[in-house]
Amino acid sequence: MANAGVDKMLTLVSRGMFGLGAVAMVPSLCLFDVDGGQRVVMLNMLSGVEDKVRGEGTHFKVPWLMQPKWYNIRLRPKLIQTTTGTKDLQMVTIHVRMLFKPDVEGLPTIHKTLGEDYDERVIPSVANEVMKATIAQYNAEQLLTQREQVSREIREAIVARASQFNILMDDVAITHLTYGKEFARAIEEKQVAEQDAERQKFIVQRSEQERQATVIRSEGEAEAAKMISEALKVHGSGLIDVRRIDAAKDIAENLSKSPNVMYLPNGQQMLLNVAGGGARSQ
Predict the structure, then answer these.
(1) Residue 268 confidence (pLDDT) above 70
(2) Minimum mean pLDDT among 17-21, 98-102, 143-147, 225-229: which range?
(3) Are 102 and 53 in contact (CB under 8 A)?
(4) Buried (b) or exposed (e) across 255-267, using 16+ Cβ within 10 A?
(5) CA atoms within 13 A on the CB side of 236
(6) SS3 40
(7) Within 10 A of 6 (CB to CB), how many other CB atoms are there?
(8) Could you tell me which residues are beta bridge partners of residue 176?
(9) What is the pLDDT of residue 255?
(10) Residue 48 bridge partners (DSSP)
(11) Residue 20's pLDDT is what?
């Protein structure tokens, strides 16, 4: 009797534990959470993808019958690079950076037609198509001088094309634009030629200024000579004597400052001449 009671109690305990385990499994099987910045598309195994999109919070599902699919709705960056030809057949490499996110209302359509990797399926092909079509309308030089206009056309075209796939573009910008070696060399040669032209222009201007300075100096000298001639006619050679005296004064002043020049007064008996005078007297 005691053994039968024990067996009955163990059976009840095991049933209770099984029931508690089943109850504990209900939340994990029947409930799911949606975090901030996410949305869930529900796949019903009987009716297909549901049109209702689940937002943040805790939601109910039927185990094995309803399968939630999570989608990130935050802005994400995407960098696309392509090499294409310009209108004048120059090869350029362009890098475009995009910030995108899915349209929440279009998530069921995205899941049905594209799948969870929709960005890899759509954005590279759309961006490459738009960039090549836009770049082909401009010359290589115009891509530099009209870069803002080119960027605006690429942005508008990508936004319009991506919206057809329920993808929202928040920003599209050209980050890098590089040319082929031949065009880069042509630009460098053009810059060198422009610098040479500016240098030659400067040389011509300097020569013209020097010529004008020479003419002005010659006119001044001619005017000075004319004034001197008129002064000689009026005052005779007095002006020349004054100029000669001024020149002699300048020469004497310069010689007095030189350490290698000694001045000996004329007719003076100097100590240096003692020996010479004695020798002559003998």
Answers:
(1) no
(2) 17-21
(3) no
(4) eeeeeeeeeeeee
(5) 2
(6) strand
(7) 10
(8) 95
(9) 72
(10) 44
(11) 53
141 half-sphere exposure, CB direction, 13 A CA radius: 5
How would you classify residue 64: left for phi > 0, otherwise alpha for psi between -120 and 50, otherwise beta? left
pLDDT in tens, 75-114: 999 999 999 988 888 889 999 999 999 999 999 999 999 9
- Would you state the structure tokens that stand for residue 3, as one six-digit string? 């053994």
Of the chain, the percentage scoring pLDDT greater than 90 comes to 37
Q: Say what the pLDDT of residue 250 is.
A: 79
**Of 37, 36, 27, nearest in space to 59 by CA:** 27
State the residue for tokens 């392509």. 82
Tell me the three-class secondary structure of the chain, residue by residue.
CHHHHHHHHHHHHHHHHHHHHHHHHHHHHHEEEECCCEEEEEEECCCEEEEEEECCEEEECCCCCEEEEEEECCCEEEEEEEEEECCCCCEEEEEEEEEEEECHHHHHHHHHHCCCCHHHHHHHHHHHHHHHHHHCCCCHHHHHHCHHHHHHHHHHHHHHHHHCCCEEEEEEEEEEEEECHHHHHHHHHHHHHHHHHHHHHHHHHHHHHHHHHHHHHHHHHHHHHHHHHHHHHHHCCHHHHHHHHHHHHHHHHHHHCCCCCCCCCCCCCCHHHHHHHHHHHC
Determine the residue type at 216: I
Looking at every residue in the chain, the average pLDDT score rounds to 80
Amino acid identity, position 103: D
Q: Which residue has the tokens 């004329």?
A: 266
In the block, which residue shows the tokens 């969870």?
116
Highest mean pLDDT among 67-71, 178-182, 191-195: 67-71
One-letter identity of residue 223: E
- CA-wise closest residue to 179 among 69, 58, 83: 83
Q: At what angle do helices 147-163 and 118-135 cross, to 10 degrees?
A: 140
